[in-house]
Amino acid sequence: MERPFNSVTRPRSTEFLFLLIISFLCTLTWPCIEAVATQELFKGFEATPNPSIPSFQPLLNDSSRKYSFGFLRVNSTQLALAVLHVPSNEPLWLANPTTLARLSDRTKVFFNGSLVISDPRTRVFWSTETQGDKLVLLNNSNLQIQKNLDNSNNDQTVLWQSFDFPTNTLVETQNFTSTMTLVSSNGLYSMRLGNDFIGLYAKFDFNSDQIYWKHKALQARAQIIEGNGPIHLRVDSDGWLGMYQNGTAPVDVESFSSFQRPLDGLLMVRLEPDGNLKAYYWAGSSWVLDYQAIREICDLPRPCGSYGLCTPGSGCSCLDNNTEFSSGECSGSGSYFSDLCADPKTQNDIKVLRRKGVEVPFKELMRYETTSSLEECEDSCEKNCSCFGAAYNNASGFCYILDYPIQTLLGVGDDSKVGYFKTREGARKKKVDAGLGVGIGLLGGVIACLIGAIGFGSYKIWRSRRGVNRMLEEEAGGVISGPYKDLGSASFRSIEMCSGSNR
Questions:
Q1: What is the mean pLDDT of residues 24-39?
Q2: What is the chain's Cα-based Rg?
Q3: What is the average pLDDT across 485-491?
Q4: Helices (DSSP H) in 45-119: which residue ranges?
Q5: Residues 6+ apart with CB under 8 A from 408
Q6: Band of pLDDT at residue 457, cut at 50, 70 and 90
Q7: In terms of C-beta density within 10 A (0-12 exposed, 13-18 middle, 19 or more buried), how is residue 267 classed?
Q8: What is the number of H-type helices and E-type strands within the chain?
């Protein structure tokens, strides 16, 4: 008899098989599932980097899953704690960006009331130094440490938040105050607030802090009142950067291209490695440039590198007019040095480079003196060990003093604007001399080898001839007189060994 079809058992068997397959797949993909973060971290949490994850290891997500906090691999050997914009994999915030931990199983992050990252081998240690109850990531990418209050409403107070410690990026709704600093990823440029302005600053050496861009509040909608507190910035989701003092009315509005246009994606402002301040919005698949503070390349702090010349419409060249500009630098036009005052002996190596038709960029923000002549301007710089160069305007008599290593100058079609720059040619000469010495040494070695080879060949010929003479001597029964040679001595053996090794 044919067995009837069991309509209940067969589907259950299929379901059981399906569950087995899912369990097996989950086992195979366990590392990926384990990397999926939670939305809150409590005391006792601890994690180490997973070497199988190539770029970002999430530890904590926001509720929308647009942002994630975790381990970010940097340069394949280092780790940073970072908040990431998940759709673009773009870091928005880094903890302790100047000192990164190693990618190692000994590096760990934990939460014990403080958020801590520790690398015992390199002694990297960073902590929020708080006594909180939990770590959360908000829907605006703000990472917070919260402490529960003892009340019936289960309220929390914020002890620490990443928005108070920005790195190179501001996002919408984030406040930027006068106590904060935005720093480019290469550490060369920073953004700070003055009493009534936004300033961008360049760190050309350890002593310099040169402002190269300044935007002052227009105060059209509201006035800055002295004594009413410092100003602050906020990136508005309607496409503008607002400057505020108190209240809701901005004292200045720096509008973006998307001004008052509804955007679905994230809006952010970033200080870039070239020193420009730019705004972007996320368009779903890419970041779209929405604003840039400096529009012309030659107005950037160092677009052509050290001893470079940037001419609008022509691009980069070198101040000495001889060195070929390549790889973003004019390294051959003069040796870089950072402190002429530290070693008086370096003054002996200083040479002077002069160039007509140049002026300093952002000159309205530069320090200057008024002198009666170019010679007086040059003399003022020559006698000052902290002066690296000067730019003189014959029309105004302004002598702009460069108290930092020479960067990019601006090329202009006016020969009355003259530049005077110190270069350290002695250091370059030493490099040339060293290279020449190496070349001479190699040439001497080649000549010595040739002489040795000729000598060795002569010795072989002599020995063969002496063998012939001995044979003739033996046949004649006589002895030819001459000095004694120990052919088994170390010196002769070494020659034969060297000769054998070169065959």
A1: 48
A2: 36
A3: 37
A4: none
A5: 298, 300, 301, 302, 303, 304, 305, 306, 308, 309, 310, 316, 361
A6: low
A7: buried
A8: 5, 34
